[in-house]
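ok here's Proteinase, seq below lol
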Amino acid sequence: MDSSRLLRTSGTAIAAAALLISGCALGSGSPRATAAARAYDAGDGRSSAFPGFESFGAGAAGVPGAADTSPGSPYRRGDTPALTPLPTALPPALRRYYAQKLSWHPCGTSGFECATLKAPLDYDHPRDADDLKLAVSRRKATGADHAKRLGSLMVNPGGPGGSAVGYLQHYAGLGYPAAVRAHYDMVAMDPRGVAGSEPVTCLSDTEMDRYTEVDQTPDDAAETAELVDAYTKFADGCASRSGKLLGHVSTIEAARDMDVLRAALDDDKLTYVGASYGTFLGATYAGLFPSRVGRLVLDGALDPALGSEQVNRDQTAGFQTAFASFAEDCARRKDCPLGPSPDRAGDRLSELFEKADAAPLATGKSRKLTESLATTGVISAMYDEAAWGLLRNALKAAFQGDGGPLLKLSDAYYERDGHGSYQNLMYANAAVNCLDLPPAFRSPSEVREAIPAFRKASPVFGTALAWTALSCGYWPVPATGTPHRIPAAGAAPILVVGTTRDPATPYGWARSLASQLSSGRLLTYEGDGHTAYTRGSTCIDKAVNAYLLTSTPPPAGQRCSN
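and the structure came out like this:
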């Protein structure tokens, strides 16, 4: 799960955060539900087919633990520093990066092209020998009239650690609204440290298997020591395998890379759609380069003014909210494995976790389902109602002693394929999160003090998520970021989209970010699921499309329920 910012786009279970199924109010027969089932049945661990990756925080307005953005709340204190824009004049040492021309070649799915962008490892001290090679992909505008082309639309699915290139080629470049694809070249770049862009690596596949199985609700000193040892070995593995890159994968540096790409694409302004953690990346860009903001959509927003402990606690409350919705839906079905009472569903699930803790469940494979893997499997299905049917079946099997289906959900979350190989999602997630903010906790004693507040936020998941928030306490590189506001004074209108019952990025965060941005405009989706654009709401899609195509944001206070 994560630790530092449990889920900038989706996260859980001792690791870091992930990109898992994000969804809206879709039935089990929806195209996305079908895609979810295919990925699950294949056991390939891929989640890039889904519009939105998360691993940050969760909660909803009115939910205990959700961020309070009312006047005078600690999340909007006047002493919270504001992100300062960079000088508009380009430093001479960076001119060669901004002047580079991309060399495109066909790649991946038919119709897509790829290129490599060079960026300095350290923007303050650029050196040719240290240059990073960042993976870029695009699909040219499909419209026949080139004169109506609006430029490039950059997309990012979140994470941190989600492959933007994979998201573009498997979803956005093919599944975004036709009118948007007709007017824009669809573009994506894997952020530094992610997938095709100098990926951070930390453990072997076998070591990662062991890491995901470690007990994340330690009952005694020995189990606590085992968990701390797992976090320490993970951090040491990242340091030994990724070296100096670990100190240069911050969101601020990734946002600066985006500006280099904007220039290489010959765009005067940045047009961008970011989901979950992608909203933090987009808002950071706006804060650094307000005069270069074109049309920015920030969907499933993060609040940059929060510290790690609050982020993790908010997200814990969000998962509880999502589980309550799942339990209510399940209870209406005759075969609900959690029973007919939504109020008892949490106790029933806790019983299953305790059973797996005492004796891991058989899965039909050499690996068994531990409590930590079971917890990850359940949380992975909270991102999208399209996965609720899979979760019901997995829980039914688990109560009968078969942990195989729940293990599949966990593997999908961790991006573990059927051959036992992991993508670098969890490694990049930890590296970015631990660099962006100081750790939530630095010792087991601090975690124990915080557990009551986490359990108040979620009686079901609170203990596990409090312990996962300890991992950055052992990170080998000190954090370079701190909580901050992002006013982006002078920027063009920026559209922030928030979902009232988002399980990973609480609605209060969207409200807060929209209020911080000097030109922020909040668009609200009243419903469930993580993020809202292109996820089934005609109202949301119409408003976002109009903004992207005409620069006209929706009316202030607009709310959508369908």
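fwiw DSSP finds 18 helices and twelve strands in the chain. kinda neat tbh
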